[in-house]
Amino acid sequence: MTSAPLAARLREVAGPLFFPVTAFGPDGAVDVDVFRAHVRAGIDAGAAAVFACCGTGEFHALAPGEFRLAVAAAVEETAGRIPVVAGAGYGTALAVEFARAAEEAGADGLLAMPPYLVVADQEGLLNHYAALAAATGLETIVYQRDNAVFTPETVVALARTPGIIGLKDGLGDLDLMQRIVSAVRTHRPDDDFLYFNGLPTAELTGLAYRGIGVTLYSSAVFAFAPDVALAFHRALESGDDALVDALLDHFYRPLVELRAKGRGYAVSLVKAGVRLQGLDVGEVRTPLTEPLAAHVKDLIEIIASGRSLLEERAAEGHGVEAHGAPGGRA
């Protein structure tokens, strides 16, 4: 954990937010050494923050002891250089246990996942996240998706809740997000509440979210193709529309279309991508399944297409460099 507040550090990020996969060995156990290598390489590649044991990191499949082990490893690898945010979820009691484990492991903040299974009303959701935020001294980002969808009024209340610093949107309803941003701005005009685009391949909707003022986003692509993810991030920031459009057309849109071909591919394709770059992070845990061989072949072609674009840009003198994936071959 670092002394600087998480919210302040995230407002000043200069790169993608890194969501590492959790490595499993041949025996199915968490492989801490490989996980460390994956995290370390992501930091070296330019990650702005590490979100450990979240959706891409298979939070749902981790036992509490495994969770704490992985979060602690991420904290040790970052050594305070960038913040570490850990997932926390299930019902309130278990979410609090995970939150306290993350705090003990040295994390800087929490990404609060939706409650397990149940569909609650707005009051119940607000009570759940307020209890989670009050359970530790960690700053908390609430994740909107699935069975945790908020009205603008509820988000205003969340923004007023001590310890809650932001909302990550994995729903993709831009009309709702615009009303949320407007409501918080109206009722909390001096508030610096943070918003994140948290869709599975957030870059595809980056332009749309930026239109309503949401510039922070999670990047699953950074886990296996940091060169592409960084180039896209820089192009968005600098207004390089030609590169943004080229990567959307030839990398991100094909990737999203491939992701839609299998359940759980938002995680298993990412893990396959990391393995393709030379780091054996193992397979996904049940109930997720591995991508079909034909789809892995498609992923290889998509990655090659993205890197080919970067090589063409570099050859034209635009200064774009190509690198390997975190923990993989250069």
Automatic annotation (TrEMBL):
EC numbers for this chain: 4.2.1.41
Q: Where does the source fall among the domains of life?
A: Bacteria
Kindly tell me the pathway this chain contributes to: Carbohydrate acid metabolism; D-glucarate degradation; 2,5-dioxopentanoate from D-glucarate: step 2/2
Transmembrane residue ranges: none
Which reactions appear under catalytic activity for this entry? 5-dehydro-4-deoxy-D-glucarate + H(+) = 2,5-dioxopentanoate + CO2 + H2O
EC class name: lyase
Q: Which keywords does UniProt give here?
A: Lyase
Q: Which Pfam families match?
A: DHDPS
Family, similarity comment: Belongs to the DapA family.
Q: Which HAMAP family match?
A: KDGDH
Q: Which NCBIfam families match?
A: PRK03620.1
PANTHER family per the UniProt record, alphabetical = 5-DEHYDRO-4-DEOXYGLUCARATE DEHYDRATASE 2-RELATED, DIHYDRODIPICOLINATE SYNTHASE
Query: What is the name attached to this protein's record?
Result: Probable 5-dehydro-4-deoxyglucarate dehydratase
